[in-house]
Amino acid sequence: DVPPNDLEAFWMPMTANRRFKKTPMFFSAAEGMYYATPDGRRVLDAIAGLWCVNAGHCHPRIVEAIRAQAGKLDYASSFGVGHPLAFHFANRVVEIAPPGFRHLFLAGSGSEAVDSALKFALAYHRARGEGHRQRLIGRQRAYHGVGFGGLSVSGIGWQRAQFGALLPATSHLPHTHDLARNAFSRGQPAHGVEFADALEGLLFAVDPSTVAAVIVEPVAGAGGVLPPPQGYLQRLREICDRHGILLIFDEVVTGFGRLGAPFAAQALGVGPDLITCAKGMTSGTVPMGGVLISDRVHDGLSQGPEAVPELAHGYTYSGHPLACAAGLAALDVYRDEGLFERAARLAPIWEDALHGLRTLGPVRDIRNLGLLGAIEIDGGDGAPGERARACAEVCLERGVFIRALGDTLILSPPLVIDEGQIGQIVDAIGSGLRRLAA
Ligand code: PMP
């Protein structure tokens, strides 16, 4: 364990540790739903690490698969050579993907997956002789990682502002967070399908024939867990189709069961053209990201009139053997333990539990979909985020680890959670809210 006086040796940009407490919270071990601290406390993990440990921490089958693979084949590149596990893994992911997605590109993280998907969209149009389609459209409050492409289409201003102009040809749709009409909605809000029409407005201004792709998280995650209004994603799909624009779902958070189906595309019944994923892909164990590519995009890329024989894109760690082994084991666990179905079964219980918090303190909104949740705190007159952070600290004192993002408490537990643990999470948040109200 790192002695506290050595902490300054680390520079940990963009981690909450230093702001959360003077001394960072250390987790030194984990098992199932729980982290353990160096001083021996057990902490219930209500956010699956960072929305990733969907099968629970240190799942023995995943641990064993990584261990076995590490002693067998440590590395093989995806350039000119390969290894069978990457093909097995891709086939297994494709089996659970929405219909019409028979290709998987492998990367090393969510940010790499997003940048890859954006590049594939540009290359797709180019291969079809439409290289003038270069504009990428994101959305306010979106989080798409830290690559130049992903950050350029992200819509959280303070994260972008530090780095200047980023990619030039980008635009942003409005977010769908409509507290006035939708506060305390359960699941997908009833109002707001017309937010999608802003895309038509934007296309009027920028010329639709210059637009390559629209990228959205089906449920905006780091922007505050914002489930899409009913009909919104369907309408985005229709508008994109009308104008020959690709629709990308960033499923880094929603992929691998979070909404009770393998992907949000299936849970919400909307078919995008490209799907990015990461996190739950290996249940958070070994870094990995990926892009599911629809047959239509794949065929356009490879057979369009101006297609190139081989796309100049790939990473040293594309299809890393350890990640593939972890991913295969995670898929086995998801299947054998029925974890996606479990998420679907628990979702209404989760919803009731979260919405029961409404009257316990200064709560402005409660949102949920699948096993995602958010409690938006009324910040009052204090500094932004101060009350939410205080509430998260009470939870930690009570042995529950949650994340405060601005004024919002974010919840995204491992899919192995049980009803008792859901109760523990809301009890801890309830204590925090009562303390704020006192
Ligand atoms: N997209 C979304 C929707 C995400 O939530 C994240 C990470 N939280 C990313 C992309 C980036 O993933 P990574 O941090 O693995 O690069």
Offer a quick outline of the entry:
The protein is built from 16 helices and 15 strands. It has helices spanning 17-20, 48-51, 60-70, 84-96, 110-127, 148-153, 157-161, 179-182, 198-206, 232-242, 264-268, 295-303, 321-336, 339-355, 386-397, 419-437, and strands at residues 29-31, 34-36, 42-45, 101-107, 135-139, 170-173, 211-216, 246-250, 274-277, 289-294, 363-369, 372-377, 400-401, 403-405, 408-411.
How many domain regions? 2
Extended strand count: 15
- Judging by the overall fold, what is the CATH architecture of the largest domain? 3-Layer(aba) Sandwich
Strand content: 15-25%
| Portion of residues within helices | 25-40%
Report the major sheet.
7 strands, mixed
Radius of gyration: 21 Å
Quote the CATH topology of the largest domain: Aspartate Aminotransferase, domain 2
Number of H/I helices: 16
Kindly report the spatial arrangement of strands forming the biggest sheet. Answer: 4-10-9-8-7-5-6
Shape: globular
Structural class: alpha/beta
Top-tier CATH class of the largest domain: Alpha Beta
Looking at this protein, list some descriptive labels.
438 residues, alpha/beta, Aspartate Aminotransferase, domain 1, Aspartate Aminotransferase, domain 2, 2 domains, 7-stranded mixed β-sheet, 4-stranded mixed β-sheet, 16 helices, 37% helix, binds 4'-deoxy-4'-aminopyridoxal-5'-phosphate, PyrdxlP-dep_Trfase_small, transferase, Aminotrans_3
Written description of the protein model:
- This protein is α/β, with parallel strands linked by helices.
- It has two domains: 4-55 and 338-437, Aspartate Aminotransferase, domain 1 (Alpha-Beta Complex), CATH 3.90.1150.10; 65-336, Type I PLP-dependent aspartate aminotransferase-like (Major domain) (Aspartate Aminotransferase, domain 2), CATH 3.40.640.10.
- The chain has 16 helices and 15 strands.
- It has helices spanning 17-20, 48-51, 60-70, 84-96, 110-127, 148-153, 157-161, 179-182, 198-206, 232-242, 264-268, 295-303, 321-336, 339-355, 386-397, 419-437, and strands spanning 29-31, 34-36, 42-45, 101-107, 135-139, 170-173, 211-216, 246-250, 274-277, 289-294, 363-369, 372-377, 400-401, 403-405, 408-411.
- The strands form three sheets. Strands 4-10-9-8-7-5-6 form a seven-stranded mixed sheet, with helices on both faces. It has a four-stranded mixed sheet with strand order 1-2-3-13. It has a four-stranded antiparallel sheet with strand order 11-12-15-14, covered by helices on one side.
- A hairpin with a 2-residue loop joins strand 14 and strand 15 (408-411).
- Helix 4 runs parallel beside helix 13 (321-336).
- The longest helix has 19 residues, at 419-437.
- The radius of gyration is 21 Å and the shape is globular.
- The model is unreliable at 16-22 (pLDDT under 50).
